[in-house]
Amino acid sequence: MLFLIDLDGTLIDSDHFHCEAWGRVLNMNPTEIDHIIKGEGMENYLSHENFKELKTQKFEEMLKIEEINYIQNAEMFIDFIHEYDIKHAVVTHTDRKIVNHFKTKAPHLNKLENWVVRDDYINPKPHPECYKLAIKRYGNGCEDIIGFENTVHGLKSIKHVTNNTIKISRDTDYANVIRHIKTRFPKKFNNIQACAHKTLLKNI
Fold first, then answer.
1. Are 87 and 27 in contact (CB under 8 A)?
2. What angle do CA 158, 162, 167 make, to 5 degrees?
3. SS3 183
4. How far apart are the first and last CA of the chain?
5. Which residue, among 68, 61, 63, 150, has the nearest Cα to 107 in the 3D structure?
6. What are the DSSP calls for 2-21, one per residue?
7. Is omega for the bond preceding 126 within 30 degrees of 0, making it cis?
8. Domains of the chain, start order
9. What's this model's pTM, rounded to 2 decimal places?
10. pLDDT tens digits for range 143-188
């Protein structure tokens, strides 16, 4: 089993930070920025030369963020991955420098070992490059792949590698997501629990 998980708006409530940072750099309303990101994307909206320079300014704005909220019970979901030793990769459009900053503000993210960040691939979502790279690095041979995404671009991207997707929103409660996964794959988690129980008895 392999979990492919988006970051912004999927594990943490951070989409608005990107819009607000671009808004300050470009002197535009964050709502306008949101439409651009969800449409053609900032990389296509800005010229190539301008994008590099402005992106650096956006980095500086993002590094001013002091508090980041998780999507409800996302910490529980991360613990679930850790407890059952589920293969996983966080696949994000956010650059490594910002991801590392997010980890300092939302430290539960550090429990997730495998990451594909924007620096690792060329073509942004909805191109499937990032998810194909994640499978090559962390999931070769996995039969059951589940994707977690919150945007149209993200869902289009991940559906190139799996049809098992879960749409996340700001209203998602990951306690319900965990219950859904356990119900959907009962043998997987019953077998894991049984093995863990046998190991525990053996060690007593």
1. no
2. 60
3. helix
4. 29
5. 68
6. EEEE--BTTTBS-HHHHHHH
7. yes
8. 2-12+70-203 (3.40.50.1000), 15-62 (no CATH)
9. 0.86
10. 899 999 999 999 999 999 999 999 999 999 999 999 999 999 888 8
